[in-house]
Amino acid sequence: MRRVTLPPTAHRRDPGGFRAFWRVWVLGALLPVWLVTTFGATLARVDGNSMNPTLHSGDLLLLLKYPRWLRAWGLPTSYPRRGDLLIFKAPADSPYSYETLLGVRHRPYNVKRVLALPGDTVAIVGGRVTVNGRPLAESYVNDGVLSDQPPQRVPPGRVWVQGDNRLVGESLDSRAYGPVDLRDAAGPANVRLWPNPGRVGG
């Protein structure tokens, strides 16, 4: 019986080990999922009442991320549009933009409706939102009352957002922290997946 001595490196070869794991799970599964959720679309869950009656806490939305990236790369896109439901982080220089969870202070993502685009002049007159001097037809809001605010021009690269819930104290939005930088936005979420699937914005 002939004995065969393997070189030291042969003992370390494992065709079904790390390389297979990397090829199958990382390149074959995890990488595509990361690419889709980073540059394509993902899910977003509503937490809070600021978008009542349009959205309710627990609603599941489809967040489209590709419009944000198209804009960032200078490619043609209609994003953002007036009426979009936008998921974003409020301005970092505002104390209204932070919350503390488990002892950690952070800026959470919010969902609000885009009412004014870069270059628009927005104001609240007689309890109604006006854009470029014209009152918006807001059939989606509840019966809350808005306090008047003087005209303000929305700077380039920013949008004016407000919650559909106009009851006092129910929505922290651009009335409190000003226009939102689109660099802090994840993208539009105009489709609800659950419950009552369908279009809710845009």
List keywords for this structure.
four-stranded antiparallel beta sheet, alpha+beta, 31% strand, 202 residues
Walk me through this protein's architecture.
By secondary structure, this protein is α+β, with helices and mostly antiparallel strands. About 15% of the residues lie in helices and about 30% in strands. The chain has helices spanning about 20-40, 65-70, 175, and strands at about 40-45, 60-65, 85-90, 100, 105, 110-115, 120-125, 130, 135, 150-155, 160, 180, 185-190, 190-195, 200. The strands form 4 sheets. It has a 5-stranded antiparallel sheet with strand order 12-11-6-3-13. A 4-stranded antiparallel sheet has the order 1-2-14-15. A hairpin with a 3-residue loop joins strand 14 and strand 15.
Short description:
It is built from three helices and 15 strands. The chain is of the alpha+beta class and about 200 residues long.
Alpha-carbon distance between the two ends: 79 Å
In the predicted model, the low-confidence regions spanning at least 5 consecutive residues are: none
Structural category is alpha+beta
Oligomer: single chain
Helical amount = 10-25%
The biggest sheet amounts to: 5 strands, antiparallel
Radius of gyration: 24 Å
Helix tally equals 3
Approximate strand percentage: 25-35%
User: What general outline do the C-alpha atoms trace?
Assistant: globular
Neighbour order of strands in the largest sheet: 12-11-6-3-13
Number of distinct beta strands = 15
- Average pLDDT, all residues: 89
Question: Would you list the SSEs in sequence order as H and E?
Answer: HEEHEEEEEEEEEHEEEE
